[in-house]
Amino acid sequence: MDAPATRPANRLARETSPYLLQHAGNPVDWYPWGEEAFAKARAEDKPILLSVGYATCHWCHVMERESFEDEAIASQLGAGFVAIKVDREELPDVDHVYMSALQAMTGRGGWPMNMFLTPQLKPFFGGSYFPPSRRHGLLSFSEVLAAVSEAWTTRRSEIEEQAEVLLTHVREGTVPAARRPPGRLHDQALAQLARSFDETHGGFGSAPKFPQAPLLQYLLTLAATKDDRARTMLVETLLQMAAGGMLDQVGGGFARYSTDQRWHVPHFEKMLYDNAQLARLYAGAYRLTGDERLRFVAEDTLAWLNREMHPAAAPTAFSSAQDADSEGIEGKFYVWTAAEFGTVLGADAEPAARLYGVTQSGNWEHGLNVLERRAPDAVRSALGLDADSWWQWEQSVRERLYAVRSQRIWPITDDKVLADWNGMALRAFAEAGRLLGRADFVDTARTLARFLLGTMVSEGSLRHAWREGTLRAESYLSDHAQVGLGLLELHAATGEPEWLQSAHDLAGHMVEQFHVVGEGFYDGAPGHLPLRARDPHDGAVPSATAAACELLARLAGPYDRGEWAEIVQASVERQGALLEAAPAAVPSMLLVQLLSEHGAVLLLPTGSGALSLVRADFAPLVTFVSAPREAVPLAAGRDAERAYLCQHGACQLPADTPAQLRGQLARLHSLQP
Hints:
Elements: H1 18-22, E1 31-32, H2 35-44, E2 48-53, H3 58-68, H4 71-80, E3 82-87, H5 92-106, E4 113-117, E5 123-127, H6 141-154, H7 156-173, H8 185-196, H9 213-223, H10 228-243, E6 257-258, E7 266-267, E8 270-271, H11 272-289, H12 292-308, E9 321-322, E10 325-326, E11 329-330, H13 338-345, H14 349-356, H15 376-383, H16 387-405, E12 413-414, E13 417-418, H17 419-436, H18 439-454, E14 457-458, E15 461-462, E16 465-467, E17 470-471, H19 477-494, H20 497-514, E18 515-516, E19 520-521, H21 544-556, H22 562-574, H23 576-581, H24 587-598, E20 600-603, E21 622-625, E22 644-647, E23 650-651, H25 658-669
Parallel strand pairs: 1-3, 2-3, 20-21
Antiparallel strand pairs: 2-4, 4-5, 6-7, 8-9, 9-12, 10-11, 13-16, 14-15, 16-17, 18-19, 20-22, 22-23
C-alpha cells in the first residue's frame, strides 16, 4: 500500500485507510476530507471534486489506473479543483449524503462516486465511473472536468441555484411520511415480497442478485412464528445461495453479490458485514429446520472469518473486506481450469468436477470455472459413500484445493477495523455459539467484545474506525446499535451480566448523541456536511435507525425504560408509510415493529442450573436476561431461582423446568395470547 518510489507521496500517505493509501502515490494533489481542503476551496474559489470509494472496489481500482495515475488529469484537477478522496467505509455519513444527491440527479449510484461540490460543500453534479476516453455514450473524465470548470466560470449562479434545489430534495428524502402501520402489516409485506420472489433460484428480483440479509432476517423471524410463506422463501434462498458460486466452495465465505440470477458468478469481493449477517441466518435457519447443510454453511463461514480476516495488528478483531481482484484481474484467485483440477486431485478429479460443476470448456469465461455445488446427492451415490465417508471425502478435496489456491497471489485485505461491522460479527459468533453448541465461537465473541469496549472507546465514546494503533475520532449511530446488539447476544450466550450492563450503557450514550426529540435518530453527529445524514432504508445492512430501535426495544422492558419504548414506537410510526408501501426497503424496521408488539423478555436464573439449558433455544422474539435481580428493574422482587417470561411489563407464572418454559416460548412464537 506504500506510495510508489518513483513519485513523492501526496497528503494521503499520512492517512491510515488502506483505500486512501492506495492513492498516496497518485500525481493528483489529493486532500483527505477536512477543514484544510475546505479552506483551500473557499480561499481559491474552486469547486471540489469529491471522489469516494473503498479498498476492495474493482471499478475504483480501474479508475485509479486509467485517470488518477494520469499526469494530464492530475494537472487538470490541480488547476481547476480541490480534490478530496474519501473512504466510504470510514466516513459513511459523507458517502450517504452525496450518494443520495447522485441518485437524485441520475437515478442510480455506485462506486467510485465522483461528485462536484461548491466550496460550501453543496453538490451540483456528479457520476460514478468515468472512462479515460469516450465510451458507451459516456464523456471522458477529462471532458467532464473541462465542462464542469467551464460551467463554474460562466454559469455560477445557475450552479448555485441547482445545488440548493438538489440539497432540498435530498433533505426532504430523509424524512418519510409518518403513518401508523396497518393492523395486517406483516401479511401485506409477505404478499408484496412473494410477488418478487424467484421461485426457481431463490432470492428476490433478477440479476444482479444480492443476499439482502436484513430481509432474510425478517423472514427468519416470521418463519419462527410458524409462517410457512416466510419459511419457504427463506430456506429456498439460503440453500440456493449456498449451492452457487456466491459461496466460496473451497475456502468458505460469501461474495457480495451474484452477477446472474442463479447465484453462480459472483462479484468476488467478500465483506465482513455480509458474512456476519449470513452466518447468523444460516445458524438460525438450521435450528428452525434441522437441515445439516445450513449448519455446515454457518460454521464454515465463521471458520473462514477466523482463519483469514483477523488483522495482524488486532488478532481479536476482524478486517473489513477482501478484494475481488488479484494481479489486477477480478476473480483470478478463485477460479479453476479442468486441467488444474486433474493436477491437484488426481483420481478424485472426475467426481469432484461433477460435484463443483467444472467442465473442460469452463462454466464461466476463457475456459475458467466458478465452483458451484449443485448435485451432491448424485455424486455421493455414484461414489457409494455413507454420510461420514462422504463428508471426509469432500473435506479432503476442499483441503487440497485450498492448499494449492493459497500458493496463488492473494487479493488484498482491507484490514481496518470498523465498530459496527465488528458488532455484527460479535453477534454472529455469540449467536452461532449459543445455537450450535460451539463454545469456541462464544470465546471468539468474548475476546472481540473486550477489544471493542477497550481499544475502540476513547473519552467514553465508542469510535467507528481503527487501524494499526490509530483510532479515528468519528462515531456513528450504527456503531452503538450494532455493538450493543452484539453485547446483548453475548449476554444471552453466556449469562455474564457485564455484557448486559455494557449494552445498556451503550444504548444510553446512543440516545444522548444521536436522537433528537420530535425528529428521531440521525446516523451521525452534526459536522461539516450541509445536512445531517439519515437513511431510513436498509441496504446490505440494516438501517442505523432500525438497529438502534431493535436495541432499545430489547432493553426497554428489562430496564423499565418507558422513554426508550416511546422512541421505538415513534420511529415505527415515522416510517409507517414506507413499511406499508415498500416493505422490501425497510425489513429491519418491520422486524422492530414485530418485536415491539410480540417480543418478550426471558428472566433466567444466574448460574448453570437446568433452566439455563433454555439459553440455547432459537427464540428470535425473546431477549434473554440473566442478571442479579437487583440489577434489572423488571426482575426486582421475583424469585431468583425461577424463570419468568414477560411481555409489556407483565410476566407469566414462573417456570421451574425447561419443559414448562419451552411451552411458554412455543405459545409466544405462535403469536397466541
